[in-house]
Design a protein that fits this description.
With 215 residues, the protein is an alpha/beta fold. It is built from ten helices and five strands. It has a five-stranded parallel β-sheet with strand order 2-3-4-1-5, with helices on both faces.
Length: 215
C-alpha cells in the first residue's frame, strides 16, 4: 500500500511525511523501519523491503525518500509501482515537486495522498531592502526585512534565492562589509540551510531568521 506525499511546498511535504512515519512507528513499534534514499533505491532493495519479515515483526514500514530526483531511481520506482501498491507493508513515497504526469500515475494506485502546495505569491519588484541589508552585514535590518517579506507572502525559497544571489555577488565584488573569504563562507551557510530544511531538521524560514540574528 502506497502513501504518497508530494506538492510544491518542499518543507511542508517533508514534515508531513516524517510526522506520518513517526505516528506509524508509534502505533507499531515492533515493525521494521526501512528508509531508502539516493542510490539505496534499487530494485533488490525495494523487493527486500516490501517482503521483509522477521522473528519479532510481521510488517515493515518503508519510506522512499525523493526517488524522482534521479532518473535511475525514478525509473526503478515506476517499474515496481504495482508491487509497491500491492504489498501489505505501508510504503511512504516522499516526492516533493512531483511532475503532474507522474503525480497522476502514483495517485491512481496510492492508498492515500497527502499534498502540500505553496501558497501563490503576488508578483513584486526586486527586494532591494533585503539584499542591501545582507550586503551591509546589518543583522537587525535583515531580520526586519525577512519579517516584512513573510508578511507580504514571499515564500522562503524565493527569499533564500535572493540572499544566495547576493552572497555570490559579494564573492565576485569587493565589499567594505564582507571579505571574499567571508562571502564564500556565507554562501556555504546558505546552502546548508536548504539541506537542513530538506532533511526536516529546521525550516528554511527559521534558519534565515537565526542567521540574521547572529550577524
Amino acid at each position: 500500500m502506497i502513501y504518497l506525499f508530494h506538492g510544491s511546498d518542499v518543507g511542508k511535504v517533508r514534515a508531513k511525511a516524517f510526522a506520518w512515519a513517526a505516528a506509524a512507528r508509534a502505533k507499531a513499534p515492533d515493525a521494521a523501519y526501512i528508509r531508502l534514499q539516493g542510490k539505496e533505491i534499487t530494485a533488490p532493495a525495494l523487493f527486500d523491503a516490501i517482503g521483509a519479515q522477521g522473528l519479532f515483526f510481521s510488517k515493515s514500514l518503508i519510506l522512499i525518500d525523493e526517488p524522482f530526483s534521479d532518473s535511475e531511481t525514478a525509473e526503478t520506482v515506476l517499474e515496481l509501482l504495482d508491487a509497491l501498491a500491492q504489498t501489505e507493508n505501508p510504503v511512504a513515497i516522499l516526492a516533493p515537486k512531483l511532475l503532474p504526469a507522474r503525480a497522476k500515475k502514483l495517485e491512481a494506485v496510492a492508498t492515500k495522498v497527502f499534498k502540500e502546495d505553496a501558497l501563490p505569491t503576488r508578483a513584486r519588484g526586486f527586494n532591494s531592502g533585503l539584499v542591501n541589508a545582507l550586503g551591509a552585514k546589518n543583522g537587525k535590518a535583515l531580520w526586519l526585512e525577512l519579517q516584512k517579506a513573510e508578511r507580504q507572502g514571499d515564500v522562503p525559497e524565493m527569499v533564500h534565492g535572493l540572499l544566495h544571489w547576493k552572497a555570490r555577488e559579494l564573492m565576485q565584488k569587493a565589499s567594505p562589509s564582507w571579505k571574499k573569504e567571508e562571502a564564500r563562507a556565507l554562501s556555504v551557510t546558505l546552502i546548508e540551510m536548504v539541506s537542513r530544511a530538506r532533511s526536516g531538521d529546521l525550516p528554511l524560514s527559521e534558519s534565515m531568521e537565526r542567521f540574521a540574528l547572529s550577524l
